[in-house]
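Reminder to self: tokens first, then the designed residues, so the page reads top to bottom the way the pipeline ran.
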């Protein structure tokens, strides 16, 4: 084994061991949902898509900036339940676009979907629709109910629902994984975007030329996507050098208090605590009625401040750490979020 390979191998092993010791010491019940890897019996915290399909959907969303639009997603599930999007379609000619809902042209879906299934075996694994500029970057209550009912009725094990949004110049797409055993407890997945073109894009475009309706917008433009963190050696090493604040048991109790504090804020729908797959750093997503806040606790927290973004925009204030993590955190959060 070369020195470099060996080093990487050791890091992997260390990471594995650290994960094991962490899962035995963290009381995961006290701050669900902590998901480090996908599990078959859970909604997956990851969704895989090719860049070509992400681009295609962006172009479709930008075709309809003030009204809903949508389409279907085809591909496979991995054994642990991660969706892999290999081909996306947009609205058919007779789709119904309205301000607050979208219905696909069913003839279009049946025709295209059947071809994709029978010729290539690609499954209909999900759907996407755009909430354009409505300010709702997640499924609506109605979307939730429709999903849960359909999964039950059709005996689908799982389903991927993606919600698009846009401004006048760019689009975003958020992935939500539903699972039949977990009803309304679906999970916002981080995108793992694979470079380049899906192996099915050109083939199916050619097969169904004349039937497929493609977006008019030619150039995709992406806003901030909820992506997987890239794995870099330094980050892996630093995460397990033992100084990350969460490795100390007393700080795990602080996190439980932080979670309670965040859940008690006004208009909060959901607080999701996630530990990053790649470096075990902590992320918290706070879904409020009209906004979404994301918190990231970097390697040198609490010496450095928690990074806070509101609806994708970073906000900073003067961080004063006085030795009490909980006090410093709550004071800072209130300054950043509640006072513009
Ligand atoms: Zn919707």
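Designed residues (340 positions):
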């Amino acid at each position: 084994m070369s020195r470099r390979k060996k080093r990487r191998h050791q890091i992997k092993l260390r990471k594995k061991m650290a994960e094991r010791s962490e899962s035995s010491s963290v009381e995961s019940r006290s701050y669900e949902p902590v998901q480090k890897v996908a599990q078959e019996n859970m909604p997956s915290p990851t969704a895989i898509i090719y860049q070509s399909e992400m681009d295609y959907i962006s172009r479709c969303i930008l075709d309809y900036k003030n009204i809903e639009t949508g389409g279907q997603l085809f591909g496979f599930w991995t054994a642990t339940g991660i969706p892999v999007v290999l081909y996306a379609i947009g609205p058919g000619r007779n789709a119904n676009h309205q301000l607050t809902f979208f219905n696909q042209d069913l003839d279009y879906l049946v025709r295209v979907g059947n071809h994709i299934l029978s010729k290539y075996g690609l499954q209909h694994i999900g759907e996407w629709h755009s909430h354009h500029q409505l300010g709702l970057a997640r499924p609506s209550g109605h979307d939730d109910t429709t999903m849960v009912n359909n999964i039950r009725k059709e005996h689908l094990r799982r389903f991927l629902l993606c919600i698009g949004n846009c401004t006048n110049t760019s689009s975003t797409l958020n992935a939500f994984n539903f699972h039949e055993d977990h009803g309304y407890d679906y999970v916002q997945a981080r995108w793992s975007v694979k470079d380049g073109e899906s192996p099915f894009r050109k083939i199916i475009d050619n097969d169904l030329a004349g039937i497929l309706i493609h977006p008019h917008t030619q150039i995709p433009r992406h806003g901030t996507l909820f992506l997987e963190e890239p794995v870099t050696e330094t980050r892996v090493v630093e995460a397990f050098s033992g100084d990350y604040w969460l490795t100390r048991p007393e700080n795990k109790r602080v996190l439980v208090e932080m979670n309670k504090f965040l859940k008690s804020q006004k208009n909060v729908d959901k607080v999701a605590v996630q530990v990053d797959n790649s470096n075990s750093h902590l992320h918290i997503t706070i879904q409020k009625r009209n906004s979404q806040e994301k918190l990231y606790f970097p390697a040198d927290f609490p010496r450095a401040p928690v990074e806070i973004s509101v609806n994708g925009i970073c906000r900073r204030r003067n961080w004063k750490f006085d030795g009490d993590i909980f006090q410093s955190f709550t004071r800072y959060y209130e300054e950043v979020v509640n006072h513009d």
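Residues 9-36, 232-240 have pLDDT under 50 and may be disordered.
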